[in-house]
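Below is a filled-in request sheet from our internal design queue. Each sheet records the structural input a requester submitted and the sequence that came back. We keep these sheets so that new team members can see what a complete request looks like end to end.

REQUESTER: design group, bay 2
PRIORITY: normal
MODE: inverse folding
CHAIN LENGTH: 238
BACKBONE (tokenized):
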């Protein structure tokens, strides 16, 4: 592992296992929130059928007739996904996917009754996780939605891990970040001391402070923290 020319960590050979697990999100009554599926479809009967299938699977559902209504109400959650019809009045499903790709979009299962193959391909290219033709079959829908929810949970955990890792590494001084980069590149304290023009004892002190500030108990744990925070810029020496 080493710093690249842009000041980012380059990591090889370290597992990206979570170091800081995220606590479950609770509702106002102290119960863990269930996954939420947003359903956007202007066809009342199709939308109702999808809602019933999902609620029978113990999923929370929020339904909308238009993309505009969905965007006005949408708030990212720890575990959620979107079931989206492509052909809608006003903003279409493809336009919604394009707009949300610039922001924090939930994993999206696209459904449609009369879409061309090109539309299916386009929707997948710009972020949809799956494409289902109408009439929607319950088993197919649940399989796709559950896969999207798993993806949502993983993305949320990764985002949380990065936030925590960046926060920990931001507590390091510029010199400590230099030492950290060289430690993770595999250099011994003696070599680091020569490279930075400081004493070996000072390097060891920096290493001890780095471990304390980051809460890492081992070099692999420190490496996972650095990987999670990447890209993380290295400042000039203090």
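RETURNED SEQUENCE:
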């Amino acid at each position: 592992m080493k710093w690249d020319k842009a000041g980012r960590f380059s990591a090889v050979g370290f597992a990206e296992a979570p170091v800081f697990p995220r606590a479950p999100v609770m509702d106002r009554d102290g119960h863990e929130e269930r996954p939420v599926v947003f359903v956007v479809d202007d066809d009342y009967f199709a939308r109702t059928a999808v809602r019933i299938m999902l609620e029978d699977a113990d999923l929370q559902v929020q339904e909308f007739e238009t993309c505009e209504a969905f965007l006005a109400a949408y708030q990212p959650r720890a575990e959620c996904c979107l079931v989206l019809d492509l052909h809608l009045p006003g903003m279409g499903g493809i336009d919604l996917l394009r707009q949300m790709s610039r922001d924090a979009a939930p994993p999206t299962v696209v459904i449609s009754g009369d879409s061309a193959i090109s539309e299916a391909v386009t929707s997948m290219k710009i972020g949809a996780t799956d494409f289902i033709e109408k009439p929607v079959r319950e088993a197919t829908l649940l399989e796709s939605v559950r896969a999207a929810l798993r993806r949502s949970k993983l993305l949320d955990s990764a985002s949380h891990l990065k936030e925590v890792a960046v926060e920990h590494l931001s507590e390091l001084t510029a010199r400590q970040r230099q030492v950290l980069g060289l430690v993770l590149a595999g250099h011994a304290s003696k070599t680091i001391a020569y490279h930075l023009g400081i004493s070996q004892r000072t390097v060891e002190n920096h290493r001890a402070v780095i471990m304390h500030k980051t809460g890492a108990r081992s070099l692999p744990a420190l490496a996972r923290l650095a990987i999670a925070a990447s890209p993380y810029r290295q400042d000039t020496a203090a």
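SHEET NOTES:
- DSSP finds nine helices and seven strands in the chain.
- Strands lie at 2-3, 9-10, 36-40, 60-64, 80-85, 108-112, 128-133.
FILED BY: M.R.
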